[in-house]
Design goal:
single chain, 69 residues, alpha/beta, three-stranded parallel β-sheet, 30% helix, flat
């Protein structure tokens, strides 16, 4: 099964903007979708957020990343 990870941007949360809409649409098509709640989004630090994502998400050959800056 394909898996999708959506990464929100600066000052946002998983429920911001179009994220829930895309998540629901992809899940209806059979994708496993996650939108991790990234830490410290008002003052993001790449190393902190990368460590969080790599520790809390599962990635495979067919993982699709969607990001917003």
């Amino acid at each position: 099964m394909n898996n999708v990870v959506i990464l929100h941007g600066y000052g946002e949360i998983p429920d911001s903007f179009w994220f829930p809409y895309v998540k629901n649409g992809l899940e209806e098509k059979g994708y496993k979708v996650s939108i991790p709640n990234l830490p410290n989004t008002d003052n993001p630090k790449l190393d902190e957020q990368l460590k969080y994502v790599l520790s809390n998400e599962t990635f495979g050959e067919e993982t699709v990343l969607i990001g917003k800056r």
